């Protein structure tokens, strides 16, 4: 009995060794994923992009800004001239927090009075927002302690106090951050997997030869293959959005029609990458493995779970080539912040370029496969 079992085991290993694509996935996937995830995963919030409005423009105010700059928690990237400038930076996603130093800041300090500074945090990313508020409070308290003299040590109040405000998500609900992101993750993953089976299924069922002898032109055949998945993808978008709003009380502060329209550019990539996978995979198992290999890094490195700004530079470079990164900006911008096309056009253009290139490459591969 054991001899027969051993012979079957050896036979399976021999077949696996001959299937180079499956063997490559077995070896490469865990190595690549461990390298990426181990390098990028971190709950520490660092280098949070900050915009500063220094209305005081004094030596004391510059020293306070330098206290923020010298830490690893914040990156002072922008300077504003009013609240409108701050709003634009935060709504566009360029900055996550803002420091506002009032005009009378140095005067209050010179008179021995408590000088208040404002700290504005983007609550659409609760984890980053909570840690940013805590770090900012610690920095201001430390700076206040440095400014105190012996007579002030008897007082309870510090020379500098922080006035925090949270935008978009004052309660810091984590669900308000994750649920809109799930729209992009679920949509992309299901679309890629469904389209990844498009050619593989024909090959496994032996019907790909029948497609080759049909009177349809290859371009017509490709369009006919894509259209059903476009319909299915939009059905999935509507189902996911309705479920998120009805069951999890996800708000829709922006334009729903704009979200549906901009989802089309993300679907271009998802459909294209799925069709490309279907042309390089011989079996549905290989198609599933290839889909997972693409989407696991996307989930981790796109900003769905961890803020991209806090990741190491190498991980940020990977994030910049992931379409999900830009689609999450669009979804969260419309759903949580209620912004319009004036803040989303860059992400839309990048997604459109990625989607067009992917569809062109996938179409050329399908022509070779069916040729």
Can you characterise this structure?
- The protein is α/β, with parallel strands linked by helices.
- The chain folds into 2 domains: 48-167, 3-Layer(aba) Sandwich (abc type-2 transporter like fold), CATH 3.40.1710; 174-370, no CATH class.
- The protein has 14 helices and 5 strands.
- The chain has helices spanning 2-18, 20-40, 59-69, 83-91, 105-110, 126-147, 175-205, 208-212, 218-247, 256-280, 284-301, 313-320, 323-337, 341-370, and strands at residues 48-54, 74-79, 97-101, 115-122, 160-167.
- It has a 5-stranded mixed sheet, with helices on both faces.
- Helix 7 (175-205) runs antiparallel to helix 9 (218-247), helix 7 runs antiparallel to helix 11 and helix 10 (256-280) packs across helix 11 (284-301).
- The longest helix has 31 residues, at 175-205.
- It starts with a helix and ends with a helix.
- The model has no long low-confidence stretch (mean pLDDT 79).
Structural class: alpha/beta
Strand order of the largest sheet: 2-1-3-4-5
- Which range best describes the helical content: under 10%, 10-25%, 25-40%, 40-55%, 55-70% or over 70%? 55-70%
Strand content: 5-15%
- How many runs of DSSP E, i.e. beta strands? 5
Provide the number of structural domains. Answer: 2
What letter string, H or E per element, gives the SSE order?
A: HHEHEHEHEHEHHHHHHHH
Termini separation? 48 Å
The gross shape turns out to be elongated
Low-confidence runs (pLDDT<50, min 5 residues)? none
Outline the biggest β-sheet: 5 strands, mixed
Roughly what is the average pLDDT, rounded to an integer?
79
Rg, Cα atoms, Å: 27 Å
- Oligomeric state, counting identical vs distinct chains: single chain
């Amino acid at each position: 009995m054991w001899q027969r079992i051993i012979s079957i085991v050896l036979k399976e290993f021999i077949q696996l060794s001959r299937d180079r694509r499956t063997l490559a996935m077995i070896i490469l996937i865990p190595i690549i994923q461990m390298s990426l995830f181990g390098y990028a995963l971190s709950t520490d919030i660092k280098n949070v992009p900050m915009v500063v409005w220094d209305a005081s423009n004094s030596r004391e105010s510059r020293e306070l800004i330098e206290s923020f700059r010298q830490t690893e928690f914040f990156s002072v990237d922008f300077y504003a001239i009013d609240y409108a400038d701050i709003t634009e930076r935060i709504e566009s996603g360029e900055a996550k927090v803002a420091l506002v130093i009032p005009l009378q800041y140095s005067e209050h300090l010179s008179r021995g009075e408590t000088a208040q500074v404002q700290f504005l945090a983007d609550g659409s990313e609760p984890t980053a927002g909570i840690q940013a508020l805590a770090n900012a409070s610690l920095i201001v308290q430390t700076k206040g302690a440095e400014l105190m003299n012996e007579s002030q040590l008897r007082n309870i109040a510090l020379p500098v106090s922080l006035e925090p405000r949270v935008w978009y998500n004052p309660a810091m609900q984590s669900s308000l951050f994750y649920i809109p992101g799930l729209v992009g993750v679920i949509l992309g993953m299901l679309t890629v997997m469904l389209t990844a089976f498009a050619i593989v299924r024909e090959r496994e069922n032996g019907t790909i030869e029948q497609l080759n002898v049909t009177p349809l032109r290859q371009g017509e055949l490709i369009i006919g293959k894509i259209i059903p998945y476009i319909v299915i993808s939009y059905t999935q978008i509507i189902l996911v959005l309705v479920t998120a709003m009805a069951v999890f009380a996800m708000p829709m502060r922006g334009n729903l029609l704009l979200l549906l329209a901009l989802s089309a550019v993300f679907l271009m990539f998802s459909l294209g990458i799925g069709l490309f996978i279907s042309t390089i995979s011989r079996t549905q198992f290989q198609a599933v493995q290839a889909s997972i290999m693409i989407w696991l890094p996307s989930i981790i490195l796109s900003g769905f779970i961890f803020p991209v700004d806090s990741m190491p530079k190498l991980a940020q470079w990977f994030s910049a080539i992931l379409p999900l990164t830009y689609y999450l900006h669009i979804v969260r911008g419309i759903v949580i912040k209620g912004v319009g096309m004036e803040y989303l056009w860059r992400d839309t253009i990048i997604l459109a370029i990625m989607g067009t290139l992917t569809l062109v490459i996938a179409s050329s591969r399908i022509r070779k496969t069916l040729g």
